[in-house]
Amino acid sequence: MDIKQLRYFVTITEEGQITRAAKRLHMAQPPLSRQLILLEQELGVTLLERNGHNLELTEAGKLLYNRAQSILNQLDQTITDIKGTGEGLHGVLSIGTYVSCIPHLTGRIHYFRQEYPLVHFKLWEGGPFYLREHLEKRNIEIAILKLPLKMNNISMIRLPGEPFVLVMPGDWDIPISTKTAIRMKDIAEIPLLMLHVYGDRERSYHETVIHECRRYDFEPNIVCECPNVSVILSLIIAGIGASILPKNFVSSHLSTNVKVVDILDFPTQAETAVIWLKDRRLSESALRFIETFQTE
After folding, report:
1. I need a surface site. Which of 15, 172, 245, 265 has the fewest CB within 10 A?
2. What is the average pLDDT across 120-138?
3. HEC readout, the chain
4. Could you tell me if 56 and 77 lie in one domain?
5. Domain CATH number, residue 62
6. pLDDT tens digits, 146-160
7. What global pTM score does this model have?
C-alpha cells in the first residue's frame, strides 16, 4: 500500500463511483479499478461494496478512509511547510463563499496580496450545503457562509450581523420610491424577487422572508425565484421587481439604476460566520487569514 493507492481510494470513496473518480483523477477507469482490487487483496478485506450505481464503504473501508484522509492531509501540510521554510507564506488558499458574503473577502484578499504576494486564492462559490460538502471533502480550508448552520466538528467565528433592506428599481414611480425607510406592510403588494438556494437543508433566507411577511399578515407577492444574488440584482435593474437583501452586499454592488430603502420593522439580521474543520491542520496561510476576522 502506497500514497498513490491511498489517494485513489479516497477519491473513489468521495465520488462514490469508479467512473467519476477516474474523471477527477484524469485517468482511465480500468487501471483505477485494478488499483482498488490490488489494495483490497493486499489488506485481505472488502473496502467498498456496490449499492445500486454507487459504491459504499464497508466497516473496514470506513476505518481506512479516515486514516487515509489523516495521512494525506499530514503529508500535504508537511510538503507545504517544508516548501515555505524561509520563503514566507505562499501556495494556494482555497476558500468557499456564497456570493452575498464576498464583501467580507475583498478587503482581506487585497491585504494578503500586499503582505503575502506568493499566496494565490482559489474561491469556491455556492450555497451552504455545497460549501459544507467541499469543506468536509477538504477541497477548501475555510468557508464563509450565512447562518444558521447545522454541522458538527467545526470551529467558527461569528461576524457582525447586518440588516436586510429593500432593493428596488431606481426608476419605479410608486409611493415608497420617495422614502428612505419603510415598514413591512408597505411591501405587501410589491412584486418580489426571492433568493432561493435550492437543495439547502437549513432554514433559508427564502423561508426567513416569507416568515416575516406572514408575521405581518400578508403573503409576499413573489414573481420570481433564483439561487443567485447577482441575477436578482440584474432583474431589479431591469425593472422586474424588488428584493429584500443583506445591506452590506447591496452596498458593494450599488448602481444608479437601483434604490435601497431601510426596513424599520424587519427584526432578522443576516448572520455570517467563518468556519473550518476542527480536526484539520490548517495551512499557515489559512491561519493568518482567519486571524483577520478575529479583530472585527
Report:
1. 265
2. 87
3. CCHHHHHHHHHHHHHCCHHHHHHHHCCCHHHHHHHHHHHHHHHCCCCEEEECCEEEECHHHHHHHHHHHHHHHHHHHHHHHHHHCCCCCCEEEEEEECHHHCHHHHHHHHHHHHHCCCEEEEEEECCHHHHHHHHHCCCCCEEEEECCCCCCCEEEEEEEEEEEEEEEECCCCCHHHHCCEECHHHHCCCEEEEECCCCCCCCCHHHHHHHHHHHCCCCCEEEEEECCHHHHHHHHHCCCCEEEEEHHHHHCCCCCCEEEEEECCCCCEEEEEEEEECCCCCCHHHHHHHHCCCCC
4. yes
5. 1.10.10.10
6. 777 777 889 999 988
7. 0.60
Domain range enclosing 55: 3-84
Q: Do 179 and 38 belong to one domain?
A: no
Residue 296 falls inside a structural domain: no
Tens digit of each residue's pLDDT (9 = 90 or more) over 94-124: 999 987 788 889 899 999 988 888 899 999 9
At 97, the amino acid letter reads: T
**131 dihedral zone (left: phi>0; alpha: psi -120 to 50; beta):** alpha
